[in-house]
């Protein structure tokens, strides 16, 4: 009996290692199905009718070609990760529909999805850096991304219009559904008149916040000049170009969403000090960022946050994801004295800093 228990536990461990060893097949398969437009071929504006690999290829590659058996192998793998649902027909044909996770990859009525984010995180310049992860430990002075991309910093890499377009699309695709949902529950903008969004990309968060909170009469979208160069004009919003480590425009509330984890403690403290300077005595800084739990667990949330953290370390160098305590300490060092946290979304947490 005891021997059987030991065997079962070793068997489970061996299986786990086999699964981890081929983990690369998972993001690569997600990228492949996005490139082949499989989610859109199945979703078809919301019908989500189960299709076989051959039927998917007939939509995805209308000029013919493609190997249905290979596509089916990819779809079966992703079914085991709950991206597709498999339907085994009585004639032996396997069909696939999208699960709730898979639907995040299909283009919605506004032309948005999470697919650009997946493509952005798996593009060649990033993929080249992963085999050098060990160097981030041995020689952290130059992050793997720079080492393999001719010394170019990941942020500088976004001077190419195609890269900027993918980057912006990735964040709009993630931000829009997130903002729509959380604004039903988070009311921290209700007394604000002028809101500054630091690192606001093309201004989409600000625009959604201002739609929901018409008390905000002036929105300032603050981002790097190369990102703002392609930002659309939005009602009530002024785009201001600059670097938050040097300066932040004034408002009665300042938001930094998904920005701090891209910066070292020193840079983050500088940015928060600049936010403090930009606020009146009764103003507030709202940070919305992934927050690490103090204790590591096996939840999907912790895996998503830690995966993002190692991604930042590999691509951007010293930057890091922080715990609630670390954010609070940075806030105090920047001049804030009160701190409150709102866990509404499972990934991005709202934190308010007051004088
Ligand atoms: C991860 S994106 C988040 C975009 C947006 N806030 C969102 O949540 O979708 C980070 C943004 O910060 C901007 N950014 C990076 N460094 C910055 C700096 N020093 N000053 C101002 N903005 C910066 C980037 O250009 C990018 O638009």
Automatic annotation (TrEMBL):
Q: Which residues form a coiled coil?
A: none
User: What Pfam families does its record include?
Assistant: Dimerisation, Methyltransf_2
Q: Does the keyword Zinc apply?
A: no
PROSITE patterns xrefs: SAM_OMT_II
Q: Which UniProt keywords apply?
A: Methyltransferase, S-adenosyl-L-methionine, Transferase
Any one of the GO BP annotations: methylation
Any keyword Transit peptide? Answer: no
Superkingdom in the source lineage? Eukaryota
GO MF term set: O-methyltransferase activity; protein dimerization activity; S-adenosylmethionine-dependent methyltransferase activity
- Give all residue intervals belonging to the O-methyltransferase C-terminal domain: 130-337
Domain called O-methyltransferase dimerisation: residue spans: 19-107
Q: Specify the protein name.
A: Caffeic acid 3-O-methyltransferase
What species is this protein from? Pisum sativum (Garden pea)
